[in-house]
């Protein structure tokens, strides 16, 4: 890794984040002497990273030339969820030029999933989105050794432990690759283009199939010594709770997550406790049975977070209770983290963010009640602005940083 304050990195990131800038303004903004700046710009032009972009408006003297990131730059951003693949190919400004999203089961293993990722990226090239990739960034739903570019003992990703994800993507696409966990890339995405833009110290909490926390401190993601900082889904909140996918009992995500909410919602539907969910379960069963008549297979029926959210919106007492109980558990863990790290914002994202303001109000209530007034006096707890795009946005930022760092 290169020094984050290296002049070439500062030039490239400014052009990425703000678009074409004149040489004169670059020198002013980055506080570089004219000879130093001209030397950096010349080198980056020769490296194919930046290009001239016409003349700037006059500032009173001779007009300066605008420079921009080379229009041919392309980054691949991949966000793997427990049940989905999201891909964007972006230009140097991280604007998408091709987008692909499809369902996929992460448990089908790294060969199957990465083969599909590669097929989609090659399709993007065939469709004219790029001639060559300059870097690939990928997020996966489990702990990652950022240094080694491999997942490490991920609870919901059988077969992925120590799989050489970074090495294989770099070899397949002939460019640098970078691997991080999904919640870190979501935090990076929200910092780049979402509600946390320009916030240096915040927590991004992903509530989806599992629960994780991206810790953004001092303007950068804090990953911990081995890359597993923020794994709050496996904090124990109830010693007598259900067994978690990690093997322990009573973890936060065993009690409230996409999986846990679906489990509790089906139980409420079957017992008749929730009329709204019972109605949805009956409709889902009827549909599944009609679709399985041909192959005689046992119908697979699920109730999703969307069903619970819709039930709550209709005033179903049980749906509202399920969301509030989940929010209370998440809020309790976050209150501890607020007392510990004193962030300036908490952002809630992931699939269960669609539970909306019932969930948010409960989390806020517990955090504000349980944390010290000094830490919460000016602490917004808000929903992600980028939603499902937070992951691919962050993966694109990571990919661009990786390409820029290697341009020494």
TrEMBL record:
Family per similarity comment: Belongs to the ROK (NagC/XylR) family.
Domain HTH marR-type: 6-52
PANTHER family named in the record: GLUCOKINASE, ROK (REPRESSOR, ORF, KINASE) FAMILY
Protein name: Glucokinase-like ROK family protein
Molecular function GO labels: kinase activity
Keyword Transferase among UniProt keywords: yes
The species this protein was found in: Paractinoplanes abujensis
Keywords from the named record: Kinase, Transferase
InterPro entries to which the protein is assigned, alphabetical: ArsR-like_HTH, ATPase_NBD, HTH_MarR-typ, ROK, ROK_cs, WH-like_DNA-bd_sf, WH_DNA-bd_sf
Taxonomy, superkingdom: Bacteria
């Amino acid at each position: 890794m290169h020094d984050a304050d290296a002049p070439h990195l500062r030039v490239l990131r400014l052009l990425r984040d703000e678009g074409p800038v004149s040489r004169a303004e670059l020198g002013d903004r980055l506080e570089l002497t004219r000879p130093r700046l001209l030397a950096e710009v010349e080198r980056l032009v020769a490296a194919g990273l930046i290009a001239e972009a016409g003349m700037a408006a006059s500032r009173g003297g001779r007009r300066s030339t605008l420079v921009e990131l080379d229009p041919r730059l392309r980054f691949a951003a991949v966000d793997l969820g427990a049940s989905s693949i999201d891909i964007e190919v972006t230009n140097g400004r991280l604007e998408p030029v091709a987008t692909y999203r499809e369902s996929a089961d992460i448990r089908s293993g790294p060969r199957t999933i990465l083969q599909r990722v590669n097929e989609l990226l090659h399709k993007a090239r065939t469709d004219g989105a790029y001639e060559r990739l300059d870097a690939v960034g990928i997020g996966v739903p489990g702990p990652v050794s950022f240094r080694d570019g491999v997942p490490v003992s991920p609870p919901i990703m059988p077969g992925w432990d120590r799989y050489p994800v970074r090495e294989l993507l770099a070899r397949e696409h002939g460019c640098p690759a970078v691997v991080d966990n999904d919640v870190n890339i979501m935090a990076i995405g929200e910092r780049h283009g979402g509600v946390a833009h320009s916030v240096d110290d915040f927590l991004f909490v992903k509530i989806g199939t599992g629960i994780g926390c991206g810790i953004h401190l001092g303007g950068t993601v804090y990953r911990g010594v081995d890359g597993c900082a923020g794994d709050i889904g496996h904090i124990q909140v109830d010693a007598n709770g259900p067994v978690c996918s990690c093997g322990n009992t009573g973890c936060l995500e065993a009690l409230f997550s996409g999986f846990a909410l679906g489990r509790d919602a089906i139980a409420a539907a079957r017992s008749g406790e929730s009329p709204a969910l019972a109605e949805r379960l009956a409709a889902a069963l009827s549909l599944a049975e009609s679709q399985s008549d041909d192959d005689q297979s046992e119908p697979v029926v699920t109730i999703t977070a969307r069903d619970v959210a819709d039930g709550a919106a209709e005033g179903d007492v049980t749906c509202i209770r399920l969301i509030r109980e989940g929010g209370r558990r998440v809020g309790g863990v976050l209150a501890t983290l607020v007392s510990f790290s004193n962030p300036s914002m908490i952002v809630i994202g992931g699939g269960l963010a669609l539970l909306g303001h019932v969930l948010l109000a409960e989390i806020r209530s517990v955090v504000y009640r349980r944390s010290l007034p000094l830490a919460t006096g000016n602490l917004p707890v808000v929903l992600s602005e980028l939603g499902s795009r937070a992951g691919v946005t962050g993966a694109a930022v990571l990919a661009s940083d990786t390409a820029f760092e290697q341009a020494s």
